[in-house]
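Async update (no meeting this week)

Hi team, since we skipped the sync, here's where things stand on the single-chain job. The sequence we agreed to prioritize is pasted below, unchanged from the tracker. I ran it this morning and attached the output directly underneath so nobody has to dig for it. Comments welcome in thread, and please keep replies under the output.
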Amino acid sequence: MASPVLIPVTTEEGGGYMQTYKISSLDELKQFKDDYGYVVDGNLEVDTSLEFEGRLEVDGYLWIKAGGSIKAGSSIKAGGSIKAGGSIKAGSWIKAGSWIKAGDWIKAGGSIKAGSWIKAGDWIEAGGSIKAGSWIEAGDWIKAGDSIEAGDSIEAGDSIEAGDWIEAGDCVVAALSVTCKTTLNVGLNIFAGICYWRKNTEEDKTITCGKLERGTIEYGILKETGLPKEEDTEVKEAIKLLTDKGVLKDGKVVVS
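Output:
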């Protein structure tokens, strides 16, 4: 089999000047392989879809051209931007020093983090948190198992849902509902249920959160559910210790 052909190009993307490697197959990626996946000491431009086990780390930018997609068994990390014409998927986390853009969807088993913005033509989903230094935008829904945070705006063509809190420096805009378990903190305005393709229901327009800490509801129905009670771990540990020593039983002091 012939050796992979790499074309080094000087570029300023990703900070400073570094080589750009252009590959057109998974076989060509294999020369960057290490014990945990792949490490590229420059920028990486790919002319095909990639699917592999392990993680991928790129010092510069990572671009999957045309309609190509990338799927990693573990994490995807780039010092610069990450771009795919199709989808971006990681079994673990996705992190970019600059922006992340997918023509289709973005999904991570863990967190998704970008120093600048995150954009998907379809949906964005993370088992952990989603965080962008600037804005987050999805043509469909945005969902995170933990928090969603953007320095500027968060915008979705469907619903926005977070298992923990939502924070945006400017605004939150959702065609359907906005939901978070704890706090909702928005610098300016909040819009929910502004869809145009069907008649809105009350559920579509509902903004559900434990507590609205900041932000003006410009469109939508606010529903505050209350913040979950924080467990006092020190008290729990003390009770366990006293129970183990026989000083407490069923929550009562044992008199000897």
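Quick observations from my side:
Residues 233-244 form the longest helix (12 residues).
Residues 1-5, 10-15 have pLDDT under 50 and may be disordered.
Reply here if anything looks off.
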